[in-house]
Amino acid sequence: MSTFEVLSRYGTLALIRHALTVVLFLVLHLVRIPLVLVARVLEGVMGELDRYATAQASRPPRGPINQFFPRESREARHA
């Protein structure tokens, strides 16, 4: 169906509504592109932060964990 057939069969208002719907569809997709790019960047940054935090939490401690009390064995405390 051509534009002129739609115009003669359904009227000007239907043709305008259809054109506005198509324009709205295109505008929404153009607005979506930057949002998707921001989401991808955030995903990459959060992945790097997750890898860094996991690496930091997985390393064994460099020194004693409890620095306020002297190290002693469990048997020495209960003797």
Describe the structure.
The protein contains 3 helices and no strands. It has helices at 3-10, 12-58, 74-78. 0% of the residues are buried.
Instruction: Characterize the largest beta sheet: strand count, sense, and whether it forms a barrel.
Output: none
* Regions with little confidence, pLDDT below 50 for 5+ residues: none
What percent of the residues sit in helical stretches (DSSP H or I)? over 70%
Which of globular, elongated, flat, extended, rod-shaped describes the shape? rod-shaped
How would you describe the oligomerization state of the chains in this entry? single chain
* Alpha carbon gap, first and last residue: 97 Å
Mean pLDDT: 87
Q: In DSSP terms, counting alpha (H) and pi (I) runs of 4 or more, how many helices? A: 3
Strand content: under 5%
Would you kindly provide a brief summary of this structure?
The protein has helices at residues 3-10, 12-58, 74-78.
Please describe the structure with a list of short key phrases separated by commas or semicolons.
single chain; 79 residues; mainly alpha; 0% strand; rod-shaped
Topology:
Elements: H1 3-10, H2 12-58, H3 74-78
Helix pairs in contact: 1-2
